[in-house]
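Why run this: before we spend reagent on co-expression, it is cheaper to look at a predicted model of the complex and decide which construct boundaries make sense. The entries below are exactly what would go into the expression plan.
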Amino acid sequence: MYFKDSCPPSLAPGLARRSRTAVAVAAAGSMLLVGCATGTQPNVTPQGPDPFPAGAELSGVLNIMGYNADADEVARTRADLAGKAIAPATVKAVEGELDVQQFLSAVAAGDAPDLIYANRDQLGTFAARKAIMPIDTCITGEAISLNDFRKPALDQVTFGGHIYGIPEFNQVQIVMANRTLLEKAGLDTTDVDGSDWSKVTEANKKLAQQKGSKPSVIGFDSKLPEFLPLWAKANGADMISADGKKAQLDDPKVVAALEFGVGIYTDQGGFGSVKAFRDSADFFGKGNQFATGVLGAMPMEQWYVNILNDVSAQAPMAFDTFKTTSGQPLSFGSGSAWAIPAAGKNPQAACRYIKTISETASWMAAAEARATARQKEKKPFTGLFTANQNADEQIKAKYVDSSTALESPWKEAVQASYEANEASFSLPANPADAQFKQAWLDGVNRVLNSKASPAESMATAQKEAQAALDKAWSTLEKADADGSAG
Amino acid sequence: MASTPILKPVPAVEPDPGPVPVPELSRTRPKRRSPLKLLLWLALLAATAVFVYPLVWLVSASFKPQSEVFDNRLFPQTPTLANYVEIWNAAPLALWMGNTVLVTVLAAVAVTLSSSMVAWGFAYYRFRGRNALFFLVLATMMLPGAVTLIPTFLIWNALGQVGTLTPLWAGNLFGSAFYIFLLRQFFLGVPRQIFEAARTDGANDWQLFRHFALPLCKPALIVTLLFEAQAAWTDLMRPLIYLRDSSTFTVPRGLKAMVDQFGFAGNWHWELIVTASVITTLPMIVMFFIGQRHFIEGVATTGLKG
Amino acid sequence: MDTARTYRLRKRNRRQTRNALLFISPWILGFLVFTLWPILYSGYLSLTDYDVLNDPNFVGLENYRQLGEDPRVLLSLRNTMFYAALSVPLHIGIALLLAMLLMRARRATGFFRTVFYLPNMTPPVAVGILLLLLFNGHNGLVNAVLGFVGIPGPDWTTDSTWIKPGLVLMSLWTLGGSTIILLAALNNVPRDLYDAALVDGAGPLRRFTSVTVPMISGTLFFLVIVNTIAALQSFTEAYTAYFGAGNGTYSNDAALFYVIYLFRQAFEYLNMGFASAMAWLLFAIIMVITAIQYVVGRKLVFYEGEDGG
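The model came back. Tokens follow.
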């Protein structure tokens, strides 16, 4: 497939030792242009009939980057199981979140880890740079049960027909609201669940309060810019075509979603005022916006339920799924995935580690550990939301449905989260996903900052996104052609 | 002629490094000004509040729990040390401090030694092309850092030093135009007879520099050390470019990482950021109070912008 | 001609030159490696497409053409100019005012001078953080004070109209250095000039415009140039407050200064060639602005001795 010859020797003549091609860490999580899809590393994907034999004896060290096994009992339990599965090979972890540049610079310096844990929407960029390998043979060799996994999550790591990673957690949103504020305004969750945008707009106006020229209660927070894909999908629009080649940011339905979301802010004094209020809020503490009654409702990631339950269990909460304009539950699925660097030195161990850490049995063991721990703290277990559908269902049946510790409204929250998880969608993977994301984020920000009308701004974003996609795909296809010719 | 049209108008750069005299009485009518006097003092006190209160606010906020950071109270309602404990656990602050101290000391010492040598070369000796060369030194001050930023990065990259602390200070081994200029002025201010006398007593060139020139210009050396220490301690851009791993961070780089992680990435832990800011700033304040006179006089006499 | 005397002198001269060059050699080496070569190489890079991972690819003037096409280049230039045009005059004006007040503070001058300089010791990262906190539109101290006197403060940190004014105001916090420089200059104004002006019956304003300003015009000129150059390269405070890893979602273009954009192009997007072209454009702009200031300054600045004092 790809050959060393297709990568020109790096760095300026007379300047470099090829192996030290380091990339500056400017800022974690910032993006990189997919300018060098020709790749820099020789491909070490093991060739042959079965490079990942299931029973093969493993050895050596497995260097993992980006995974914090000590984050909680769910991570610990599964990491222990996976560690046992690859014995006598041993694990060496570089903890902390995966830093894009840190990873790419390690790859460029010939110092790649053997396994990475990254956001699913980063894998397109990595794959385009040939920094990670397709794991199709790993999946067949280790017999990873693909049927267990949610399709939208798998789509997010599938790229040019090849699977590049195994998805792990699934992050979904539900609608969270302050019940007291809703009741006072004569509303309920159906007014703020997104199923009827005019109702949401009305509810926002009723809930929002001003003091002087500043908001004192945020009525509804549409969570722009980050939730534009959710609002767009709820309106029946896909921001990118299913094959990841065509941006559709100027779709009138996307523009309408943006108009609506921005209108929510305009009605309460503008995005600037709402954000200034939000920025100074005690988001994680017992003085959070719901507990202090300064936020009516918002769509929000499911993990925030746990925070609220921990710090302000008595807050007058109401939860429901987020809905499409036709009333169906919907969530914008995102999350992490495991992937194997192309230059990794222990792909077999990496593959078995992935298989074990993401399989149903490991999730069950993790759920057991979590349930026990929560019980000890006398707090309810609110479920696990993963990309492994089979695991989710079993955990729900075994630990959540039977739980008596769960009381209203937290019970509804968990219920809604499960429904949302079933109704999640993802943006398809593409080799320019970082730039694509930046283009639409910029598009939304221009409107939020009153620099452009929604239609104008999304037209600009469409142009930028399409140019980036075209460039990335053509570089990639050219590299593939070169690779197969050589 | 060739020398320094650009910097000629710098008035404060006189060879005389003497302290700025505290003004005595104003020249004009000493009495009948009490309402104006009152206004003057009010204005000065108001300015003092504006300059000092943000720092007081910062320190005060670092003793507040998360929910009170924005309450703008001078004294925390529920004072707590928890932020300091938590920050100690959340970030390798001791390591960052160690890195920063190392970089600061190396940067300051390196630039002082090298710049004083070069300045002495320009101040004491007469040789052909001296003015042209010195003009070149001054001209480099006009070059925006952005122009050399990328190639310099590539040099350190080629040397395998990206990711280490070396690029943050090693460039200082080659002198810095501003300090060369400053120190040369000091050397020129020393009466030449002193050196001639030393020379007749048998001092060689190095001894002349080491045992006569340097000790005579100690105040200027201290100013150089202090200014560069401050610059090295507070720098953000170079650590952003050169440091990858959080174990190699300097304190300002670490602080920026914390802003990114706790501030924007959805966490809003401002109480921790405020605390880390205090920890980052405090050493500078301490250094200022120790070297106060040198700082103020250095600024006043060099015309350095703060 | 080769008398023994000139021979000795020459030998002495040669030794002098050798020793001088030995002392100067660190700088010469540094100049060649860290200034001259980077300048040349940066010029070359600006004509290429280069991402560090692969070889530079020569593209001629393409990057310079793109400078004109990238709306962000123009935007960041406008932001930077706006910031410089607002912050430099305010900075120097207020510093001068404070310096003149300090002149009259008698024995307390030293104390106030120290206090005014204190903010300059705060690392710029911390200044950026203070900006976010103190200028928060909803709960910030600045708006609390404004509210106290009945002015509803704007959203300094989130409203794109007010972001640059907020940055300007925050930058004024560190004008203590200029105050000290101006104070030194004021102290150097000969007193008899004021006495002479008094005898001529000049009022305070007249004394200010015809004695003080001319006598410190050299310092003012220096401060204008230095502060303009610094403002045009402003980076850390705005970058800390509005850009960086976690802040991709709310990229706020109102705070996008030229050097910030250059930095992002170079080290976040790895467009080293384009960033090099940006650096050269910045160099050209700074040279032009400094040249204009210099020409104007020559007309306005009063040099003692030039016209007989």
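The first strand of chain A starts at residue 61 and ends at 65. Residues 1-48 of chain A have pLDDT under 50 and may be disordered. Bring this page to Monday's planning discussion.
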